[in-house]
Amino acid sequence: MSTGTAPAAVETPWRRLDRRMLVVGPISLLVRVVPLVAVLLLTGQGDPIRVWMAAGAAVAAVIAGVLRWRTTRYRITPERVELHSGWLNRQRRSVPRDRIRTIDLTAKLLHRAFGLSVVRVSAATAGTPGNGAGLSLDAVSKAEAERLRRVLLDLSPVATDPADPAAPVAQAPPSQELARLRWAWLRYAPLTFSSLAGMGAIVATAFNVLDDLGLDPRDLRAVDETAEQLSAAPLYVAVVVVGLALLVLLVVGALLLFAERWYAYRLTREPDGTLRVRRGLLTRRSLSVSERRLRGAEVVEPVLLRLGRGAQARAVSTGLAGDSQGGALQPPTPRAEAHRVASAALRVHPAEITRAPLLRHPRAALTRRMVRAIGPAVVLAAAAFGVGALLGTDWLGPVVLALVPLAALVGWDRYRNLGHQLTGGFLVARAGSLVRRTVALQRGGVIGWTFRQTIFQRRSGLVSLEAVTAAGRGGYAVTDVGALDAVDLADATVPDLLGPFRLPAASGAEHPPGDLPAQRAGRGPQERLHHG
Amino acid sequence: MDSGATAVPTTRPAVPGVPPPLRPPAHQVSPVAVRWWRLRALLLLAVLLVPQVVAMIAFGFPAASWLIGAAAATAVLVGAWAVLVPRLLFRIHRWEVTDEAVYTLSGWLVREWRIAPISRVQTVDTAHGPLQQLLGLATVTVTTASARGPVKISGLAADDATELARTLTETTQATPGDAT
């Protein structure tokens, strides 16, 4: 079995999804046809054809659910995970086990009620970089999901017999807890953009539902009376009241969303060498990242969160492209906690990764940041003055002009945040103002370089260096660094790769390419940069 | 408190006008590529001009004065591009494959140096577009495990491209590991 020969693969029996899917599958499909059925029944006034159509849709949903269960089979051979599904349109998916990067277990409310869980397997596959490949088992029992998670991410795939469903979960050695939810972190909930966007979605959905039900909020007596009182009051009072009401709504919504997403959050290191994030109130989620595939960590600070001294740590790993939270290892937390979690996940001191003392980029980068921030604002203001003059709305120009100092502030902040450092094992880079990201990328995870220089950058001697990697967003930039430093940095990060392509005696090459041991040691060349 | 305040040590000041100190890759693309880039520019010109001519005919002569101006400007700009830029591109575009790495330089306004280690190469594709087929050219795309990583060498002579793809495939197959 250990050699994984073909006969062994043939012997592996096929398995079906959990039997309870015979109930859950049809129900979840029925839920989807509810709007159609409702429309048919409500608009038809008891028209028999419409009633039959509605009944037909419901029956079709049930049959489809049953068929899906009947035709879906999966198995785990020593080398591959295979999934066959579909009846008329047969699909066969197969993922090599050594390409599996992350396992995501999701249980929505309905699934949870029946003790089921959806298993999503993400893999990196040659030829389809980035978006990766994978498959999803919708759904298996919780115990089976747990077993699959362990078997599929196990470093030694043959240690557990994949054909043995009775492999007990309870006997697993204890996992190490790296972090758990503290409700005090709720204070960061209103400071994240994603929660604001989520709130917008919820409000829009609520309005849609009300609209679908034929309800107009203005029909409600309390709403109507309030609206009348507001329209009687002076304009600024109305603006303040409505603004405050919206703010309260946003805050409450953000708190609720935080609770739904991060309830029972736990970050653990499992004995099988995976990092596991468990969270969720109604929809339970569990994301497992193979530590072997972890290429670094990122501390993300959206501007509001940064002003509130909060941050969020994310994993930089392959196979996270489809994750809605971008590989978040934690909810928004105090900044120190974010750095701590990043360091705990990577097993290195924070000063080696996201807390490393960064080198500031040359002054020319400040000029470039300022031009790029202020330029569009000035153009916009000029356009606003033009439009204002044309339409006779004189206030438009000055209002937009107020954007210019704001843009200058952002540009200055972006420069201030630019920085990089090479530590013993990591390339650390920071950039951004509205969303500041500090990324620590394993030096071994860099699989290529891109140096990019526009004609403007060339004039000021700057280069944007991008470290190409298989993990995370695929490339992490060191923005606007001096041209000579960019090459030195890349050469020092991955020794031996750049050497043959460097100009032998360029004006800035103070140390020859043969100077590798010092560069491997870490900060050597960088320190020399600013002392010399 | 704010780690931003600690970023005080600064890198060397940037020297104006300096490109990264990397030597250009060894090989140029096929000289025929100049014709390919020119043809592409002419195609673009056609795509831009045809609607303008149609508009001129549709609106008749009184409305056409500024339309003629726009059309003339388009023709001059794209024509100048077609005459001047392809030669520049030919001078800039270079590539090189060593036993360790694939190295390319491309771009006119935004210059790009790309380096990918051979050990991380996953697939090598050769593509011939219709124009390229006409001129006997090909594009070789070297893909690594990264979404941002594909290294493209376009405007190669078709035979060279096939040969390059073959040697690259052989080299990568000889290298163990899953390239991530």
TrEMBL record, chain B:
Transmembrane segments: 41-60, 66-85
Biased composition annotated in UniProt, kind: Low complexity: 1-15
YdbS-like PH domain ranges (all copies): 91-168
Highest rank taxon of the organism: Bacteria
Annotated spans, Disordered: 1-22
Key words, A-Z: Membrane, Transmembrane, Transmembrane helix
Pfam families on file: bPH_2
Stated name of the protein: PH domain-containing protein
Organism: Pseudonocardia humida
